[in-house]
Each structure stands twice: as C-alpha cells, then as structure tokens.
Write a structure and sequence with these properties.
The chain has 165 residues and is an alpha+beta fold. The chain has one domain. 32% of the residues lie in helices and 23% in strands. Strands 1, 2, 3, 4 and 7 form a five-stranded antiparallel sheet that branches. Strands 5-6 form a two-stranded antiparallel ribbon.
C-alpha cells in the first residue's frame, strides 16, 4: 500500500452519479509538472511533478529519520492527519522542512540526492546495483521544499494544500 501525495493548488472536484442520482464534491490537488522542478535519478514515477507515491512504511521511515513525523502525522495539525484528506499548507510548514533539510545536510553522507534502482536478478539473486549511491532522504526533502515553496508563492486562490489518498 502507498500514499499518493500531491502539493499544490486546492480545487473542488465534483461529479454527478447518474446511477445513484447523487452529487458529490471533494477538495483535491491536481497533478502538476514544472520544467524547473527537481528531478532525481531513478525517480521516473515522480519526475518533475508535484506528486510522490511512497509506501506507508517508506514515508513514515523517511519522516522519522529527518524529524518531520509530527509535521505530517500530528493528530490535531498534521498535514496527513486524515487519510485520505487535504490540509492547508502554511509558511510554517515550509520553514520546518527547510530546518530539517539544513540539519540533514550537516549530518548527511555527501551522496547526491536520488534513489536506488529496482533490484535486478543477477546470478540467481535479486541485487540492487546502486542502492548505496544516492541519498533518498535528501531527495525527498528537496522535493518537499521545492513544491511547498512553489505552492505558497504561486497558487492562484491562495489555497495551497497537501492532499493525500
């Protein structure tokens, strides 16, 4: 199982279900790609987009390692306190990410941001050929910083948000 996390302009998506004759509406953040957005090795699914799709334990582990677990999962104010859900993005959220990024850069291994490739079947075993080549924590922090900053500066209706489902 994985999260689908989008950072950007909150919009209302609505539809009418003819079968049940019901109207529904929900807040969402739609996919967005930008030419100047960060792109990392072995990250083809995200590429230069505003969405990430990490596994539950992968995302939780990342947040624990960089000290942002509370920012996302605090029961009262976390950006992903409800799943699925949407939360208003505030400048204080970006500041927390920037603090975590600065701290990570001081203690990190010096590896470039990116992700290991999928394991390959070599000599009868599944092996990752570049597992220790990149810093995935740094990549995720840079992604969060870029898209949070972009959303806070550029969203038209002043409703920057973090949406997950």
């Amino acid at each position: 199982m994985s999260y689908d996390i989008y950072i950007g302009q909150a919009v209302v998506r609505s539809d009418f279900d003819k079968k049940y004759e019901e109207f529904y509406a929900e807040w969402v953040v739609e996919p967005q790609s930008l030419i100047g957005a960060p792109v990392f090795p072995n990250d083809g699914m995200t590429s230069n987009g505003n969405s990430r799709h990490p596994g539950y334990s992968q995302w939780s582990g990342f947040l624990d390692k960089c000290g942002l677990h509370d920012l996302f999962f605090n029961k009262e104010e976390g950006l992903m306190r409800e799943h699925p859900g949407i939360a208003l993005l505030k400048p204080s959220h970006l500041e927390r990410v920037r603090e975590a990024l600065a701290k990570w850069k001081l203690t990190a291994s010096g590896k470039p941001p990116g992700f290991g490739s999928f394991p390959k079947f070599i000599d009868g075993e599944w092996k990752s050929v570049d597992e220790d080549t990149y810093d995935s924590i740094l990549a995720r922090l840079l992604w969060l910083e870029f898209w949070m900053d972009w959303a806070l500066r550029e969203c038209e209706c002043e409703i920057p948000a973090v949406y997950n489902h």
